[in-house]
Amino acid sequence: MERRNFLKLATAGAAVASGAYVFMGRDSHAETPVFIGKAASYQADIPGLLKQALAGLRFDPARIAGKTVLLKPNLVEPHSGAGHINTHPAVVAAAAEAFLSLGAGRVVVAEAAGHRRDTHEVLELSGLGHALREDRIPFMDFNACELSAVTNASGLTSLKKLFLPNPLLAADLIVSVAKMKTHHWAGVTLSMKNLFGVMPGTVYGWPKNVLHAEGIPNSIVDIFATVKPHLAIVDGIVGMEGDGPIMGTPKHAGVIVVGENPVSVDATCARIMGADPWKVPYLKLARRYGPLSERAIIQRGEPVGEVYSPFKFLDFIDAQRIKTDG
């Protein structure tokens, strides 16, 4: 894997800090719709809610018909019964059902577990394996797939190429199906941070040590800009607060958030959680790819104020201190 030398990396870091990589001032993007739906529990009609979201976003059904849809859930740790750690099986199954009912030719679920080398252990103990077998939805372990080197589309890290699984690159629609959680380094982990799970541990280590060394915010943006997911779905029915993304405690927020622009989806989720998206480092870096300001995000479904449910953050996480909408 090619790397710039330390001096060049330090220079790039200074450029980021000075705003060289991002638009300064107010958001300069077209208005972006984000859908918020209420779901009191995992027994709710989540497939119906997701279809309502896609209709509200005017997601053209022709983009789905006959296509291969790849769902990328958040599978972190194999804790049976700890539904606040991983994307809930009901949400993944509901997404598969919704896309198939709208004419998708094939739906697959894929992940490269970050902490445990045995992705299938995480799959089974999370309950997702059983749910996928019931619905005959195939699963792929990205840690065991053939890879291709793809040019880093953002260049915030020193990694000139990113090694991505071939099934990811072959999918017609890539959907990040994330969990709404706090994160002890990133502040929050949502649809963009969830894409760490497409990066194979066979290249990037466990738990993605190469990416951590490159800087989590910069790595998040590089992966997002290179993978270019087509849709984000965030499971906030029961999320995680405190010492996330693993050691935190359950937090019922009762929402599912959906949008085509993951930057705006994550900014909306942050507001629901009581965090300031302008103080989330990866979102500040990513604002050239999508708006953060509420004024630039078209709200579909429920307004943020109706579902506002402040999460507890670790004391040193600055993102929790909301002062401005930017």
Search tags:
326 residues; alpha/beta; Rossmann fold; nine-stranded mixed β-sheet; two-stranded antiparallel sheet; 12 helices
Oligomer: single chain
Overall strand count? 11
Report the sheet with the most strands, covering strand number, pairing sense and barrel closure: 9 strands, mixed
Low-pLDDT residue spans = 1-28
Mean pLDDT: 88
Radius of gyration using CA atoms only: 18 Å
- CATH level-4 homologous superfamily: LarA, N-terminal domain
Counted by DSSP, the helix tally is 12
Order of helices and strands: HEHEHEHHEEEHEEHHHEEHHEH
Reported by name, the CATH topology is: Rossmann fold
- Percentage of helical residues? 25-40%
Question: What CATH first level would be assigned?
Answer: Alpha Beta
Strand proportion, as a percent range, falls in 15-25%
N-to-C terminal Cα separation, in Å? 38 Å
Annotated CATH architecture: 3-Layer(aba) Sandwich
In the residues, how many domains can be counted? 1
Overall SS class: alpha/beta
Shape: globular
